[in-house]
Amino acid sequence: MYHAVILDIDGTLVDSNDGHAHAWVDALTERGRRVSFERVRPLIGMGTDKLLAALDASLDSSETADLSRRRAEIFEDRYLPAVKPTRGAHALLEWFRDERLTLVVATSADWGELHALLARATATRLVEHVSASGGSARSKPDPDVVRAALDRTGWPASEVVMLGDTPYDVEAAQGAGVGLIAVRCGGWTDAALAGAIAIYDDPQDLLDHYDVSPFKRPLPIRSE
């Protein structure tokens, strides 16, 4: 029923959300700005600019750039080696490929980190296009990155679905007019993911229930 899937990466295809939060805590601590993991963790999934603004509105653009660079270094060195695919991630992507669905990534990760994460998910050769926030005017939860990914699919929003794990994915998808299937493996509750058209434990759970998922339900008829 759908022709393309827009994919989030962190928390959806790889179990990287905790690692990102720890990297932010480490980077901020190095710069004399102590913040707890518990405060940072619920913000993972936002673009860097919005996350840092939520933590400390006094940061200027140069401080934001410096912290972003340092966080990326820390994440790559300390946390990326432990990142693993979420359960069933590769199998689900292979299934999408066999179903001849176009796969496009929409992410707030920067380009270098994105390729490392795709490699961790063994997804590099399965994804056809990438739309990262670096090429968009506004990061998640604004819909720009999802709209850019939608454009890359070549299909109208009514025939595209997004797979994500955070309330920011839900908001961004809704802003782009795209339905979102959510997975809980990123750490959010069903209440936080309200607005998703369906919620599954992880990619494997979606694959196990694929025949009764939104992928096999008739799309609603839209009046002109």
Question: Which helices and strands occur, and which strands form pairs?
Answer:
Blueprint: E1 4-7, H1 17-30, H2 37-40, H3 48-55, H4 61-79, H5 89-98, E2 102-107, H6 111-120, E3 129-132, H7 144-153, E4 160-164, H8 167-175, E5 179-183, E6 198-200, H9 203-208
Parallel strand pairs: 1-2, 1-4, 2-3, 4-5, 5-6
Strand order of the largest sheet: 3-2-1-4-5-6
* First-residue to last-residue Cα separation: 19 Å
Shape annotation: globular
The CATH class of the largest domain, by name, is Alpha Beta
Provide the CATH topology of the largest domain.
Answer: Rossmann fold
Low-confidence stretches: none
- How much of the polypeptide forms β-strand, as a percent range? 5-15%
Helix content: 40-55%
Secondary-structure element series: EHHHHHEHEHEHEEH
- When the domains are counted, the total is 2
Radius of gyration: 17 Å
Query: What's the CATH H-level homologous superfamily of the largest domain?
Result: HAD superfamily/HAD-like
CATH architecture of the largest domain: 3-Layer(aba) Sandwich
Please report the total strand number as a whole number: 6
What class do helices, strands and sheet pairing give?
A: alpha/beta
Discrete helix count: 9
Task: Give the overall average pLDDT.
Answer: 91
The biggest beta sheet reads:
6 strands, parallel
